[in-house]
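Extended Data, record Fructose-bisphosphate aldolase
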Amino acid sequence: MDRPNRRVSRRSVLMAAGASVVLTAMAQPTEAAMITRRISADPEDAGQRAALAERAIVRRHVRTLWGRPRTRLGLLVWPASLLDLAFVRWCYWWQAHLLDCAVDAACRAHTPEHLDRVVAIARGIRTRNLAGWTNEYYDDMAWLVLALERADRLLGVRFGDAIGDLRSALIAGWNPAAGAVPWRSGDDFYNTPAIGPAGIAMARLGELPRAGQLADFLHTRLRDTDSGLILDGIHEPGGRIDRTVHTYSQGVTIGLETELAMRTGESDHRGRAAALVRATAHRLTDAGVIAAASGNDSGLFMGILARYLAESALALGDTTAANIVHASARAAWAHRAEVDGLPLFGVDWSRAVTPPKDPGTFPPATPANLSRDLSVQLSGWMLLEADYRLTAAGY
């Protein structure tokens, strides 16, 4: 049998080189950034600080999706490359938290602009996801249904069958043998970042028995008895535990126990929430400030913990939880950098964001480079909205 000619021609080499140059150019940031240490006057009002954090993300990250009217998504990095501007990458669960923060902002300032943004981001998620509202990751879907449920309950903004579709998907993923939902469809890993938000969602959607089972799973299977903290996850069958401790794992567990304490009146859930807040304060804060994360997905971890600490403070009167949020908000704001007078947060709220030496650049492996991530900025925004809610409630 004759074989095709495998020689590489000069033309193919040149074409490949040209394509490489084009792709490299597309992957580079398309705009310069003038980052400075903070220079503007500090607003005293917590709501004003939250509004500035919101404005920073809207200006730097939020864009129309594919030119479609009334759709928005968040660019994963800023400055963005041409590939990012085209939303080749988009990250479902980051967008769910962008939507949740937009709901926070609309609750703080109930204006047509804020409501329109909530609608546009939800429409953007549905459009970019292509195949409906669901995907194969139960943590992703739990985060989105939480944001959509809050938009419905707090703002009266509904999106057809979205909540029902996501609720059905979470219930369909339930494994009776394990008594929980896994991280991903068909996976054997049952982790806190999926079980926690799924449990909160089920509690809010009226599935209290399932929510209670998920809370018990976390408390009995993934709670480290020495530290009192919640571990990352467990493989079933087999029982092999991943003992990594994440800040947001504590946050979603506090959130789940808080929901159940409110909805069932059972003292066990109140006690579990309070104990986990104390353990978090002892082991995952520095001078009361939530421990640092990194970029990429972990950029969201601090803000998620802050959100559910605030929920526990507001619902259960936990002053330790409120104090952590306030201390973290003061630190994040004091250590911010600025771009055109708007805040740029770091991955460590207890340390100042260091601007790059050369204006308009983000050198690799620096705190400023990690601040490019939407996840890191969403954490800062989420924190300041939580701080505002507590302040407005008198905490």
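Summary. The chain has one domain: 47-393.
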